[in-house]
Design goal:
Elements (H helix, E strand, L loop, with lengths): L10 E5 L10 H11 L4 E5 L18 E5 L5 H5 L25 H12 L6 E4 H6 L4 E3 L4 E3 L2 H4 L4 E3 L4 H12 L10 E5 L1 H5 L5 E3 L2 H4 L4 H15 L10 E5 L2 E5 L8 H8 L9 H4 L5 H6 L2 E3 L1 E2 L10 H4 L5 E2 L2 H11 L8 E2 L1 E3 L12 H5 L21 H11 L6 E2 L7 H5 L5 H11 L4 E7 L3 H7 L5 H16 L5 E8 L6 H15 L5 E4 L7 H8 L15 H11 L1 H9 L1
Parallel strand pairs: 1-2, 1-3, 3-4, 4-7, 9-10, 12-16, 15-17, 18-19, 19-20
Antiparallel strand pairs: 5-6, 7-8, 8-11, 10-11, 13-14
The structure holds iron/sulfur cluster (SF4).
């Protein structure tokens, strides 16, 4: 700041991650976008919450504090699905998990408030704030918690992808205007302010949804239903929820960035590294994965019930232009550490690049059906052509030796693309796989897949046959890696046995990538886990509860479980 001649920053971003200047790091993106819009943005990375001086290191911001737990919810980052403390943190220099406090959003907000009284407006952001923006079930304390903005005593919460709302907040606060109309934010209102929102949809109050009774669970489910029905930027209404003596106001989502705006976010010349002061503290493992990877799009058509992407990024997929992606990869070559390998060309799901259902932009995503479940919607028309052309262009760049697709892919989209699906699998197997390719069927038993919002196994098996054949033709020995989930609502021990038999007999492997379901806030699966009811049908769902029942499901699928079975 001294070198730049800044006496003060406009916005100070606080993050639970080590600062990495990369488009994969939300703090970097928001900071760079603010800079590009003429605001002075500074970053306090992993400040020591026990040291009040840490929050005074950059002085006080002129406009607002922007506080984030980091790329991952702090409870997910700090604890396994079985509740054990994680020792490793890939976003901390040296890798030791000692820097990110539990419930980091609240802890950082309180520390900022304590360092400067009265504090400038405190804006919460990032995935933790986004997924805890209304009253939500918290797996780690096994109770329904208030919206995080109420617990953190913050002024504003920016949810979803924050470029638009964070810049608009900076502009309105700078101009002394009223920021309460900015889309993509939540704020706390008094009765009078609530009275000025007559068309708002009212969620059942926190007091009601927090009751651990049948009535409370039904109220929770109703709040969840209203919340999810109002997340599309085209159709969503303002939501309000009574929290003690105040109201949470959830403004409609900000529209997603358009392709040219997304290009502009990625056209920023990021350092693709941590600053020297952070590098000196040790290696940041996450950098190995993201430094030379490129994001081609945002959003996801899949609405997998356990996944937070649709809640955070939305159901509309916005793709960057091929020229912008090529230009980003060309810039990799200027980096001293680039050795010619592009580690990933992808997004939430790699093969959703370059095609879109036309109705979403003007009418919003269909409320009454999913785009990919139970089968691919006829309006979507998957087309792997744009991704194939893009990959070919990247592979032809002079300084590029390898281009890999490391993000997961959806086999059902390949089956639904009669024109270029087969060509895509052949090209993938021949050129774009670094030995193994990730697939995430998650399960294979129909009623469990239905609870997850995932399609059946036919497209998976078709893909496996095509991929094995294409690899054989290319003379390459390479593998598919399958990701499975144990203890998802709806899944019994018998279902896990059926999954194990399928893995051993049909896929001919013992799965290594098995996760126990983690109920992250605001997803459908978490609503199922908490209430024991399917939010779509209202019918009771079996839920494996307790650490041992959940671990047992996982063990059935892993080597230990398979060995035990064969011993019998
Ligand atoms: S028409 Fe089909 S692809 Fe388009 S939003 Fe509706 S379900 Fe999704």
């Amino acid at each position: 700041m001294r070198r730049l001649g800044w006496d003060r920053a406009d916005v100070i971003l606080v993050s639970g991650d080590a600062y990495v200047d990369s488009p994969y790091c939300g703090t970097a993106v928001i900071g760079q976008v603010l800079l590009k819009n003429g605001f002075r943005a500074a970053v306090l990375s992993q400040p020591d919450v026990k040291d009040p001086a840490a929050f005074r290191a950059l002085g006080e911001p002129r406009l607002y504090w922007a506080i984030s737990a980091g790329c991952v919810d702090s409870m997910v980052a700090n604890y396994t699905a079985s509740g054990r403390r994680r020792r490793q943190d890939d976003f901390t220099p040296g890798g030791e998990n000692t820097r990110r406090p539990d419930r980091a959003t609240i802890v950082y907000a309180n520390a900022a408030r304590a360092a400067f009284r009265p504090a400038k407006p405190i804006v919460l952001g990032g995935i933790e704030a986004s997924l805890r923006r209304v009253a939500h079930y918290d797996f780690w304390s096994d109770k329904v918690r208030r919206p995080v903005i109420a617990d953190a005593k913050a002024d504003i919460l920016s949810y979803g992808m924050g470029e638009r709302s964070m810049v608009q907040l900076a502009e309105t606060i700078r101009d002394g205007a009223d920021w309460r109309g900015v889309r993509g934010i939540c704020w706390m209102a008094n009765d009078e302010q609530r009275g000025r929102l007559p068309g708002a949809v009212e969620l059942p109050p926190f007091d009601a949804v927090a009751q651990k009774t049948d009535e409370g669970r039904r109220a929770f489910l109703e709040a969840h239903r209203l919340f999810t029905a109002n997340q599309d930027p085209v159709t969503a209404k303002t939501l309000v929820q009574r929290v003690d003596l105040r109201w949470l106001v959830h403004n409609p989502p900000a529209p997603p960035l358009e392709p040219n705006e997304l290009d502009a976010v990625h056209d920023i010349p990021y350092m693709l590294d941590a600053p020297p002061s952070i590098r000196a503290q040790g290696a940041i493992r996450a950098l190995d994965t993201v430094r030379f990877a490129v994001t081609t799009h945002r959003g996801c058509y899949g609405n997998c019930r356990f996944c937070a992407i649709a809640v955070h990024q939305g159901r509309r997929v916005v793709s960057r232009s091929a020229d912008s992606i090529v230009a980003e990869v060309r810039r990799f070559a200027e980096h001293p550490k680039f050795r010619g390998t592009v580690a990933d060309v992808g997004g939430p799901t790699a093969n959703m690049y370059g095609f879109e259902c036309p109705r979403k932009k003007t009418q919003g995503a269909c409320a009454e059906r999913d785009c990919l479940f139970p089968r691919c919607c006829a309006a979507l028309k998957p087309d792997h052509g744009p991704q194939l052309d893009l990959l070919r262009r990247l592979r032809a760049l002079p300084d590029v030796k390898h281009v890999f697709v490391a993000s997961g892919i959806r086999p059902d989209l390949i089956s639904a693309d009669a024109r270029r699906g087969c060509e895509y699998v052949s090209a993938l197997a021949k050129h774009y796989v670094s030995g193994q390719l990730k697939l995430a069927p998650e399960h294979v038993v129909d009623h469990v897949l239905a609870a997850m919002g995932k399609p059946g196994v036919k497209s998976l098996l078709d893909f496996k046959d095509r991929f094995d054949e294409a690899s054989r033709r290319a003379g390459l020995r390479q593998f598919l890696t399958y990701y499975f989930i144990a203890a998802h609502p709806g899944c019994t021990d018998a279902d896990m046995r059926r999954l194990r038999d399928f893995a051993v007999r049909t896929l001919r492997l013992v799965p290594e990538q098995v996760q126990i379901f983690t109920p992250t806030p605001l997803t459908d699966s978490t609503a199922m886990y908490y209430t024991g009811l399917d939010p779509h049908t209202g019918r009771p769902v079996f839920v494996a509860r307790g650490a041992s029942a959940r671990q047992r499901q996982k063990d059935m699928l892993t080597l230990r479980g398979v060995r035990n079975e064969f011993k019998k």
